[in-house]
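User: structure tokens for this one?
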Amino acid sequence: MPYFDAASSAPLHPVARQALLAALDEGWADPARLYREGRRARLLLDAAREAAADAVGARPDELTFTSSGTRALHDGIAGALAGRRRAGRHLVHSAVEHSAVLHAAAAHEAAGGTVAEVPVDRAGRVAPGAYAAALRAAPGPTALACLQSANHEVGTRQPVAEAAAECAEAGVPLLVDAAQSLAFGPVPGDWSLLTASAHKWGGPSGVGLLAVRKGVRFAPQGPADERESGRAPGFENIPAVVAAAASLRAVREEAAAEAERLRELVDRIRARVPRLVPDVEVVGDPERRLPHLVTFSCLYVDGEALLHELDRAGFSVSSGSSCTSGTLTPSHVLRAMGVLSEGNVRVSLPLGTAEEDVERFLAVLPDVVREVRGRLGAPERAEEAAAASAGTGAGDSGGSAGPGDSAGPGAGGSGDEEAELVVDSLGKLCPIPVIELAKVIGEVPVGGLVTVLADDEAARLDIPAWCAMRGHTYEGERPADRGTAYRVRRRA
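Assistant:
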């Protein structure tokens, strides 16, 4: 069964397995002890630290092993903020950071600090100069800035070197989350702190990296501990640490050639999915991106149903859409980018992915999407065009509603005298509000209005995205008696 979710967790690399088994026999003792077994464990730990530091581009005494990448982010942010508390209490991060950064930022804000988000463009990328502008606009001195090296949902690479230079000029340390990119090479630029997670590159889970450059003010939080320079308390998991460092070195040796091959496979998916499946939006930067990751969103598709059907067809993929997260809100990454969140699919290929597996995925996907759309009653492209050409003239009759709906001037709290058609999608989750909009758009004349009443947060992204894909005008939103009224003017 092809596994296409390496961005969540990569399969254990063979070198990691070998190193783990060997270290279980040799690295079980306390590395702080002076007897033979302890010295042997210390040698393994020191060698792993040197190898990992070399891959990161840091000194061994700057690198700490933590219990996870999330722990590394939380400890790195908390320690840097505490170390620079006299300089300021302001934190800056991009709008598409990993949720661990957002959670740390929320805790900082709850403790009385201030936080600012740097926006991204529709490709998910921070603009040049954006961090410099955010630092200038800060309400007070900034203690820390955070920026991921590449996005975990859409693969877009961020301009880390430029942002690091902007932060250095302002005297602000930059923490880089390198979890997704470290397998493909070191992070460029004069960063101050860096975090990563071993299971993202084929190491064992439960190992994170935190690098803190010499000269960066850093105050570890929590009770003091004598291990890992006081930054990660508790007994080191030496076998896992050894396996993580060994696999990172092995993956790096393979990365140059393998990245080129994976990029070609991803390019194939990016190019062919929109041709094979109608109404698809491929998201993320088409050029400045990770070589193994591609994300696309399918109109009129429930993300959870799509993933289940792909799993039944033998493919393991993931999603950033609201329907797969257990919440009623879209992914914060897709929301920040302003792209379609319906039917979102993230394909992230592990090292060694076979070309025939990608071809089989491309062969299976159209039928899977068609089946899910049919189950939801989604309109076909041709049916929408026929409905639009029929034009029942809702604007002449004072408004026409879908089944069970009410319509008329000012319906839905719009307050306008212009006749409009109102679609009541309250209580319905993605992608039903958009499907209902598509079914009735042809019932108003060109220039006429349709108002969709919805209380699903995903509608805020998906209705404007549908308008852009269909050539209609999104007129904005306004509060309604219940939920939100989204107004669409028919243009096509």
